[in-house]
Amino acid sequence: MKIIKNFFDVSKREIEKELEEKKEEKMPEELQAEAEKTRAEGQYLFEKLKMLEQQTVFVHNKEKYENFELLYKGALIVAECLDLNVEISTENAYHATIQFTTENFFLVKDAAQEIHLIVGMLFAFADEAWINWKDGLLNITFFFQINDMVRR
After folding, report:
1. Nearest to 131 by CA among 96, 95, 105
2. Largest Cα–Cα distance of the chain, in whole Å?
């Protein structure tokens, strides 16, 4: 049996069609006004974010860090067993990251069960996971909030 569902392709076509229809319906003046409005809203959000950033401090959360520590130690084992480059960073106050970089990522049946479990735990416990292709390499980045954000 083979099942193929191209949800991404269909969604992308629908969005492109919808955007094209909206462009065709609007006059150049309307498009210009919309662009100006978008720029103004973006500027307002940027200023609000900047103000919020100045009113925020990050407080170390020992429990979150200890959980992250277990995960990054597991990530080091995964990287070594699967021949992946790995970068672990806690330099950003908002989040810590674990990033694997490689040409190919294969998690095969012959890999130890622990490797499968650790990779699953990284995806399960990460606040965000991004997978992208950059400079000819596959990047898998896991984000973990290890500090608590507190407003002053």
Report:
1. 105
2. 62
Whether this prediction's pTM lies above 0.85 is answered by no
> Other CB atoms closer than 10 Å to residue 68's CB: what's the count?
24
Quick: pLDDT tens for 17-35: 888 877 777 777 777 888 8
Sequence-distant (≥ 6) Cβ neighbours of residue 151 within 8 angstroms: 52, 55, 56
* Cα(144)–Cα(123) distance, integer angstroms: 11
Burial class of residue 9 (count of CB atoms within 10 Å of its CB; 0-12, 13-18, 19+): exposed
Average pLDDT of the residues in 45-59: 83
The amino acid at 8: F
